[in-house]
UniProtKB/TrEMBL annotation:
It is found in: Nucleus. InterPro entries: SET_dom, SET_dom_sf, Znf_C2H2_sf, Znf_C2H2_type. Belongs to the krueppel C2H2-type zinc-finger protein family. Residues 75-103, 138-165, 166-193, 194-221, 222-249, 250-277, 278-305, 306-333, 334-361, 362-389, 390-417, 418-447 form the C2H2-type domain. SMART domains: ZnF_C2H2. GO terms for molecular function: DNA-binding transcription activator activity, RNA polymerase II-specific; RNA polymerase II cis-regulatory region sequence-specific DNA binding; zinc ion binding. Signal peptide: none annotated. This is Zinc finger protein 501. The keyword Nucleus applies. One of its GO terms (cellular component) is nucleus. It comes from Ictalurus punctatus. Its main location: nucleus. Gene3D superfamilies: Classic Zinc Finger, SET domain. PANTHER family: IP01243P-RELATED, ZINC FINGER PROTEIN.
Amino acid sequence: MRYVNCARNGEEHNLVAFQYGGGILYRCSRPINPGQELLVWYEEEYARRLGLVFEYFWNIKSSINEKSNSPLQVFSCSWCPLLYTSETSLSEHIKRCHCEESEMPQKTVETTSSTSQQKSSATLCINTSGTHLQKKVFQCSNCEKSFSHLSNFQIHMRVHTGEKPYRCSECGKSFAQQNNLQSHQRIHAGEKPYQCSQCGKSFNREDNLRIHRRIHTGEKPYCCGVCPKSFAHRSALRIHRRVHTGEKPYQCPHCPKSFSQLTHLQQHKLTHNREKPYQCLSCKKCFTQQCYLQAHQRIHTGEKPYCCTHCGKSFTHRSTLRRHGRVHTGDKPYQCSHCEKSFSHMSTFQIHQRTHTGEKPCECSECGKRFTHRQALLQHQRTHTGQKPYRCSQCEKSFRNQSHLRRHQRTHTGEKPHYCSRCGRSFCHASMFKTHKCVGMETSALP
C-alpha cells in the first residue's frame, strides 16, 4: 500500500482528492515517475476550515530528516483520511463532521524516522473512506463547471455531446438522464403523483409542483441584480436579464431580426410562412395565432378585461396594462448604456439607441430616404401619397400628422401653452415662442 503525503502548495501536488460514493479516491493531475512521492494538495481555505496546518507538518518533517531520533505524533480521524497536529483540532473536526460517531475512540498514528532514507510526514491512505470532503475536482473543459462526483460530471458532459442514452419505448423520445425518462413516461401512463394541497392540481414531476406552489405563496426567489424585480422561475429571470444586456440569442433564419425569447421568434416565423389559420367571424380578418384573434375580437365586443388597480382604467391587452402600470410606479427598466437615459417602454428605448448608433432601418420605397423608426417613415410616405388622415372636427381641415392637427386645433380653442414668464405673453406654437424677443430669459411652458 502506498501513502499520500500533504503537498506544501498547489504547484507541488501530483494528486487530487475527490469523494466517490462513501470513499475518498485520488486522481493523477500530472505524470508520476516510478518511486516519486505522492503529494495531495488541499486548498488553503479548506485546510484552515478543517484545522490542517501543512506548514507545521513539513517543518517537523525537515527536522526529522536532520535529527532522525525525534518522533512525530499526529492524530488521525477514524472516519476520514484527515490528520491533525493536536487532539483539540481533531475533536473540533469530529464534532463538526462526525457528530453521530463521536462516541467512538480515536486512533493515534505515531511515525518515526530511523534511517536517512525513510521519510516521516502526516500521511493519508488511498483507500480510507470518508463522507464530508466536498472538493470539486471534475472540471468541464467546455464551460469550466466543476463537480465533486464523477457521476454528476458524466451527466453534465451530455449537455455538450448531445448524448441521450435513455429512450422512451412508447414514443422514441430520448433523454440525458434516467429520472427525466421516468418523469416523461408518466405522460403516457397519465400518472401525476404530485398534488398541490392548496388547489388540488396534480403534476408528473416534483419540481413542477414546487414551482407551482409559488403561485399560492407569492414566493419569488430569483432576484435581478440590476433592478428590484423578482421572479418565481429561474428561466423568467434569465429572460428578464436580456432587457438590461440587450441580448437577443434567437435569430430568424429568413431575415436579420433577432429576439430575446424563443416564443417571440416562433411567432415571428409565421409572418414569413404567411399562414393565418385563425379568422375573425365578424370582419373576416385572419391571424397567425389564436391569442391574436382573441385579442382582436375585443375590438368588436368592447371587452376590456385588464383593469388598473391604481386608477381603474381598463385595457384590452395585458401587455398594455403592464406598460400603463409604469405611469404609476415610475418604473423605467430600459436604461441606455451610452447616456444613462431610462425608458418605460422597450420600443422607445430601441428607437433612442439609434440616435447613438446612427442606424436608420426604415427606408422609403419611393425616394430612398431613411428614418430611425417606422412612425416617422409612415408620416413621410404621406408626402408621396397625399394622404391626410387627421381631420379637424371643427372645420374638417385635414393634416398628415397628428401633431399638426393638435397645433391647428388651438386656433379654435384659443389655447396658448407656450408662456413667457418675463413678459407674460403666451404663444400657440413653440416656433413663435422661440422667435420671441425675450428668448434666452427665464421662460416656461404651461402644463
